[in-house]
Amino acid sequence: MRQPALTTTVSYQALQSHAAEARDWQMRQLFAADPQRFPALTVDAAGLFLDYSKNRLDARTIELLVDLARERGVEAQRDAMFAGDKINLTEHRSVLHTALRMPRGKQLVVDGQDVGADVHAVLDRVKTFTDKVRNGTWLGYSGKPITDIINIGIGGSDLGPKMAVLALRSYAHPRLKMHFVSNVDGHDMDAVLAQVNHETTLFIVASKTFTTAETMLNAQTARRWFLCEGREEDLARHFVAVSTNTEAVSKFGIDTDNMFPFWDWVGGRYSVWSAIGLSVALAVGFGYFQTMLEGAHAMDEHFRTAPLAQNMPVLLALVGFWNRQFLGATSLSIAPYHQDLNRFPAYLQQLDMESNGKRVTKGGQPVDTPTCPIVWGECGTNAQHAYFQLLHQGTDVVPIDFIAALRATHDLEGHHDALLANCFAQSEAFMKGKSADEVRAELQAQGLTEAKIDELVPHKTFPGNRPSNTILMDQLTPATLGALIALYEHKTFVQGVIWDIASFDQWGVELGKVLAKKIQAELEGDVDPGAHDSSTNGLIVMAKGAKVP
Ligand code: F6P
User: Fold this and answer.
1) What is the pLDDT along the chain (549 residues), one digit of tens a residue?
2) Where does the record place the catalytic residues (predicted)?
3) Which of 187, 385, 459, 547 is catalytic?
4) Are 323 and 491 spatial neighbours (Cβ–Cβ below 8 Å)?
């Protein structure tokens, strides 16, 4: 259905007038005026707790934002996604990552096929295989159990599994060391191959399309490396594939008995729940992998059934929209206060920016508002000692999502309180800031001269009033990790609906791929690189020159 331009909708216009009133709001005052602000602007679901009270908004703002979500058809679009309708319009596909975590026995028929049954048939194969590798009955060519697993994939075939394997580090099998090679840069593969042994290494070639240039080159290199010691007939014990493209897998030389399939209705960046998560299942065991799926399913059920005003992904999306649209926030910083979530910001970059980094509507018209902010971040407390200076006192307002677990998965004394204290202190500092009067009083108490105080006050003042969300879980477990990923998936979906964006394609990455192929031919052959601009020509000539002995 064609959507009207966002800024012409009744609910958007109501929000715009409200935003004009809210322009000068100070969060300090909002908190002082309403002792119920914390309970009013928090929600819990699927083992997660979201505190969005440290944003420049009030209950009325939320009401208006919910009106907007309703007017843009979030509920209908959500239901269409869960039902398997072809909501990926530009590729004419269903969007069914939620079906990957449906409980066994639940039917969902799409195009005459029970996708629930298909999903569980593959999960059963994943279980059988992972059990064998983990219990040491899957042997390498010389009869030894596998010790090292190398996932070769890129984008969604790398970021999700890598992030989840790191996040669930404390559940990992003690014998199995997991490695991830994604970059076409040979230094990536070289560094990993230097650590492993031909006899005990298993490669997973993970690619939805099985045509991605980086993955294919890395897989060929891995194959060549293996064949330095192993024989052709040993390949089947050391190479498995995860893909939707059976023909290409078999052409590559991987036995299709060793292939774990998935389907075109799973977007690459939404694929960690499919067999693309094989490395996760191998690392933590099928049982915990399944628990991760159950955590995501719990968030799916919440998203599917909770009223919009109490719906965590919807609220996270709406608050993000408010900050982007009416506070002019051009970026969103993700700050996990959990070292094991180290790769979570990188994972969210693809999820959010590849989905909603678009400038036209589904109908092909320019979107009449800004769309996806730049997503970036780093674990706390490291981030505090790197770039938080700018977030506190720089000229841009950058909203932050703080993510933390109330309990650690280690028992090292003193660390967890120190970590949480920093997390909560930062969100308080961003909200409150420090006024010039407060700075002055502090410096007077230290006995500084008035001249020195005048000099220092502007530098030591924090504007505050800077927005953040805090997402808490009891502990980082397979279930809470599953819920956390699903939370952000649905948040991205809701924002895409509000902007009326085609969130499930990624044509924007194609142009560079095509040009890279052309330039690679020029670098490798005698083709004259004269057809580009002078900069590109010059760089190509330099690279070719560097090859001359
Ligand atoms: O080029 C972008 C992209 O298509 C991503 O969307 C995808 O996750 C990645 O490449 C890898 O694709 P594949 O799994 O098909 O190798």
Assistant:
1) 679 999 999 999 999 999 999 999 999 999 999 999 999 999 999 999 999 999 999 999 999 999 999 999 999 999 999 999 999 999 999 999 999 999 999 999 999 999 999 999 999 999 999 999 999 999 999 999 999 999 999 999 999 999 999 999 999 999 999 999 999 999 999 999 999 999 999 999 999 999 999 999 999 999 999 999 999 999 999 999 999 999 999 999 898 999 999 999 999 999 999 999 999 999 999 999 999 999 999 999 999 999 999 999 999 999 999 999 999 999 999 999 999 999 999 999 999 999 999 999 999 999 999 999 999 999 999 999 999 999 999 999 999 999 999 999 999 999 999 999 999 999 999 999 999 999 999 999 999 999 999 999 999 999 999 999 999 999 999 999 999 999 999 999 999 999 999 999 999 998 998 999 999 999 998 777 668 999 999 999 999 987 654
2) 354, 385, 513
3) 385
4) no
Query: Using a 6 Å cutoff on CB, does residue 156 contact ligand 1?
Result: yes
Does the CB atom of residue 509 touch ligand 1 within 6 A?
yes
State how far the Cα of 431 lies from the Cα of 11, in Å rounded to an integer.
28
Nearest C-alpha neighbor of 209 from the set 149, 275, 262: 262
The residue length of the chain stands at: 549
Among protein residues, the one with the nearest Cα to ligand 1's atom 3 is: 155
For atom 5 of ligand 1, the residue with the nearest CA is: 155
Residue 234 burial (10 A CB sphere; 0-12, 13-18, 19+): middle
209 lines ligand 1 (CB under 6 A): yes
- Asked if 385 is an active-site residue, the reply is yes
Q: What b-and-e string marks burial along 297-323, b requiring 16 or more CB atoms within 10 Å of the CB?
A: bbbbebbeebebbebbbbbbbbbbbbb
Q: CB of 316 closer than 6 A to ligand 1?
A: no
Q: Is the CB of 529 under 6 A from ligand 1?
A: no
Nearest to 280 by CA among 459, 481, 420: 481
Give 506 Cα–ligand 1 centroid separation in angstroms: 9
Q: How many CA atoms lie within 13 A of 193 on its CB side?
A: 16
- Report the alpha-carbon distance of residue 198 to residue 105 in Å, rounded: 41
Whether 513 is catalytic is yes
Q: Which residue has the tokens 């001249």?
A: 451
Token reading at 510: 């194609």
Active-site option among 251, 513, 517, 518? 513
Contact 403, 344 (CB under 8 A): yes
